[in-house]
Amino acid sequence: MKSFYFLFFILSFSGCKATSPGDTLKANGVVQKGIPVGADGCGDMIVIDSVPYKAIGIPAEFLKDGLEVKVRYIPAEPFRCGRGGKAIPSVKILSIRKK
Asked: Can you tell me the distance from the alpha carbon of 1 to that of 18, in angstroms, rounded to the nearest whole number?
């Protein structure tokens, strides 16, 4: 019976995250132009705190490689780059401006 309680305790905390979909976050980031998704690339990315994210909804005027920006965003579902590619985190851009 003790093992049941231990397993229940472990499983109840295993899904905890620092952020969840719907949380609005703000950060500084750097835009990275990527290989288009149709060509088995990841598309446009944004690097926040040294972590690359698939960026959803960046306006065309901000798609300049190396552009430093301030963004307001929400976490989105992971994105798979290319065929059978590894899932990478993604964010939906709510607002963006040059830093």
From this structure: 31
Does this model's pTM top 0.85? My answer is no
Secondary structure E strands in the chain = 25-32, 45-48, 51-56, 68-80, 87-98
pLDDT (tens digit per residue) in 20-58: 556 799 999 999 987 555 455 678 899 999 999 999 999
State the Cα–Cα distance between residues 28 and 3, nearest whole angstrom: 45
Number of CB atoms found within 10 A of residue 37's CB:
15
Residue corresponding to tokens 């040059």: 98
Maximum CA pair distance of the chain? Answer: 60
